[in-house]
Amino acid sequence: KQNNRENDLFVINFIERANPFFKSKLSSTFNPLSKGSSGSLVEFIVSLMDKDDNDMWKGRAISLISAIMMALVYMRDHEDFDLNFSSLREHLQLDKVIELYKTRTDFPIHIKNALRAYTVSLPSFQEGAPKQKDIVLGLHGYLQMKFTKILGFLTDSYGYIFNSIPEIDLENFTAQNKKAIILVQFPSFEKSIDELKTLSYLMLSMLKKQLNFALQENPLSSISWIINDCPVNPGFSVVSAQARAHHVSLLFSYKDTNFNQSDSNESMSLAANCNIKINMNSPTNYELQYQGMKYDLNIL
């Protein structure tokens, strides 16, 4: 406030306290689907899905989300369609898929082909039938269910963040070389460990997606993120390795030294790519080993 930078601080607050839809403003708004290609958004959604050992069903579900995402991204870019988690969930219904395939003759051929490829892959699907057989509805419902959990809690529980006009635009921050701080507050007392993991991975995936944008456009950018109480997520260490080249500052923090137990390779890679390491009081002797070198974090 003393430096007149109040407008550069954004807070994404997942702590609901009570029903957030009827309370005063609790959080900055953010729509991860408002920017980005269909391919990158599909990868983003798929990364949030529950793990499934059955590759066949997961592949079918990805075919569904890919076809729909291509159509909705086209509508977003050419018709000012409001693409968010709520509208994505709505268009995953079978009648919406068929409606897009039959009525949107203006779609590019690759989008129409993707919609048709998905529908005809459903056993007993009849293209001209006014109503599909139960087996078609059941199979599509099963594939749609793969996204029900993630889209449900992002839309219903956190719609006050994701279903409003976005105030946070990461690509705009990067393009304009705007220095901003985004503080993310997670509901560690309110939600389960699984939901906290999903929320943290959601935010980390969006940061990774933004760095991918920087790699493609190569802007001179500067953006600082403060992410509080996040676990180590597999695949995120590459972000810490690439961030410096794009003038992106990352701050990693952890509550205790057990943060490395879930994925020791990931945590060691994160530590190795951090130039400055600050350790507060620790009741245990904590040591990292990397490329034959030992780092005593109690004295760093």
Structural class from helices and strands? alpha/beta
Mean pLDDT: 78
- Report the sheet with the most strands, covering strand number, pairing sense and barrel closure: 4 strands, parallel
Total domain count: 2
User: Count of DSSP E strands?
Assistant: 6
Distance linking N and C termini: 32 Å
Beta fraction: 5-15%
Specify the number of helices. Answer: 12
Order of helices and strands: EHHHHHHHHHEHEHEHEE
Major sheet: order of its strands? 1-2-3-4
Helix fraction bin: 40-55%
Short description, anyone?
The chain has helices spanning 38-47, 55-79, 85-90, 94-103, 109-121, 134-145, 148-157, 159-162, 170-175, 193-217, 237-243, 264-272; strands at residues 9-13, 181-185, 224-227, 249-251, 287-290, 293-296. It is an alpha/beta fold and 300 residues long.
SSE map:
Blueprint: E1 9-13, H1 38-47, H2 55-79, H3 85-90, H4 94-103, H5 109-121, H6 134-145, H7 148-157, H8 159-162, H9 170-175, E2 181-185, H10 193-217, E3 224-227, H11 237-243, E4 249-251, H12 264-272, E5 287-290, E6 293-296
Parallel strand pairs: 1-2, 2-3, 3-4
Antiparallel strand pairs: 5-6
